[in-house]
What we know:
3-stranded antiparallel β-sheet, alpha/beta, 3 domains, 23 strands, 20-stranded mixed β-sheet, 4 helices
Amino acid sequence: MKRWTGRVVGTAAIFIVIGFILMAVGFFSGADTSVIFSDGAFYRINDVAFEYDSAQELEHAIKNVNEINIDVSNAAIYIEQSDDDSYGLHVSYVQVGEKPKVTMEDGMIQVLENEKDNDFHITFFWNLWKIVLNQNDNKIVLSVPKDAQMDSIQIHTSNGIIESYADYQVNTFIVKSSNGKIDTDHLTVLQNTDIRTSNGAMDIRGTFSKNFYAKTSNGKIQASGVFHADVTCETSNGAVEMNVENAVDDYELEARTSNGKIVIDGDSYGNEYHSRQSALYKMYLKCSNGKVEANFGEKGKQQDFYSMSNNYTK
Length: 314
């Protein structure tokens, strides 16, 4: 009996391995392995997409927006600079299991997933490979006028990157992703910055006031710019790098790492550092596995320049 059971289990394991090999061969040969079953029939995901384009949907341009709210499950989200003084929104969903509700009107832009269909999804190796490459076929692209002033931006996605490279000003900036990197540049936040991801690095650049909080469980945190704010950066697995244009005397600085070293303006310390001085702002930097580095003033500007050069030449 035991011998028979062992043969069955061994045979099953062999067929499973063969199946994965065949799927991999098909994928790298260009096969479309993403399929859904809906209304009694099979379709390729690309055949049943959801799309919204404000340029076609709206009768007049939206030029005044105070609030942006995006709360979705699986989508990459991009904020880019508009070509004119109006806002634009393009939503393109390939995975039809999530149907977003789009609201775009004077004063508010909102994309929410509140409708779920009952389709049966078979995504196989194709979707697994997309996750590994940090790619997402569901995309939300928001265009913002240069120097726009807004009250609140709140963005949440469970699986997808979040990138904001537009030049605008906002009072509250809250961005969260469960799986994906978060990058910003040219951003100005006047009151509250809260940026979090569970699995992914973040590269945050801009001018920040009052409160700045950044946290990831797995990935490096790099924050650069002007910080007229209390700063907290925490990561469990990855380094923390601060490049600050303000003077070091502006901060009561505390830094901790379990496995790594602490470097402040080029000087190395142990795994704990505390400036123990009264200052305008507090800065707390912590990581469990990695180096904590902070550069201030002219050195912070220089380090930020080199970091930007490295990023943009990839």
